[in-house]
Amino acid sequence: MKKYLFNEFEGVSPQAWKTKIQVDLKGADYNETLLWKTNEGITVKPFYTSEDRTFEQILLPKSGFKICQSIEVKDENDANFFAIDSLQRGANSLEFILEKPIDYETLLKSINFKEVKIFFKFRFLSAEFIKKLSEFTDSNNCFFNIDIISNLAKSGNWYQNLKKDHTNLEEISKSVNNFLAVNTSVYQNAGANIAQQLAYSLAHANEYLNHFGGEISKHIHFNFSIGSNYFFEIAKLRAFRILWSSLLKEYNIEESNVEIFSQPSLRNKTLYDYNVNMLRTTSECMSAILGGANVISNQTYNKTFQGSDEFGERISRNQLLILQQESELQEAQNVADGTYFIEDLTKQLAQKALDIFKQIEKGGGFLKQLKEGTIQKKIKESANKEQEQFNKGELVLLGTNKIQNPNDRMKENIEAPAFIKVRNEKTLIEPIIERRLAEQLEQKRLKEE
Known about the structure:
By secondary structure, the chain is of the alpha/beta class.
């Protein structure tokens, strides 16, 4: 008969732990001293046990994450060269960001898009061009990032108008696979808390399900930005998969493994002491990996003040290669299973998000609340709270609002727009503005250089 070492020790109940802690606190109140609430209203405890586990089945990716190189296409030949070079240096997925119709045959020359997962992100809407591109690639490995709701939320306007945008989208849906994206990054980068991000992502996607029917879910992929709240961001992606599965059940759709594309947030990135951005993006990429993202595209450490350059892109790609190969996180999508703290966070975040989602649907749905300004108002409230915490030093960005280097000079190094620009143009709705936390402080420092 086998004897196990831990069989000789009696289990300790949560109540026994609490009693011991209460004794050690010497009269201080347990709840007031050791419990704290996050901006989402999540209660964080000092310890977790098996009783905090959730037994909700999460359908995570069957294989590990892919390393994506994002490329803004300004010249098809240059973009093609950069794409092939990136694939040779470790990337196994590509994202092409298109401002206008391009010569896709030149762009994709010598790229095996039957094997390499490719994302096309459009900043315009043309059914004719997208259908031709889809026909040329003819691959289920290609994902077309078309999101008319996100464009409305970010810009305040449709691409053309409501009727034409929907007509274009319906035309695309007839012959293009993987044609819909739900770009949730705008909510994170504008300051929405994690519960709001989850709820808005779900309500945003639900608008497409309402319009096309539940079967369209197999053509939708999601784009998430990942912040620096390490464990919470892991739980965020896991909670979303639970929420998405629950929503599909309401449409009598069998659960499927949804595609999640992730990248680090821009909200916490800084102009001064910019090398710290590498540490931030590494942590954020790890959260995406352990949270079960299918594809991860890293941000360059100097994105706040410079355009794309070979060194920055190589470093950002190598960060993911180190995590994948040297840290052995290639197949880490299930690592968080059974982690009491993360499972409890997942459960709480999912419930908070579901409550917000129900309120949105009760209020007429996501588009209606966007048009009324309700979503914008909620995000502003969350962003202002976070900004106040940053200004007070309660939310710390090292090298920026704590431990500043007074000799740091940046005025002569800025080559790309570093701050949000307010546009003076008429919009149908109030746009959701993405803004970095450090912008006001950095503008002040630049003036004082």
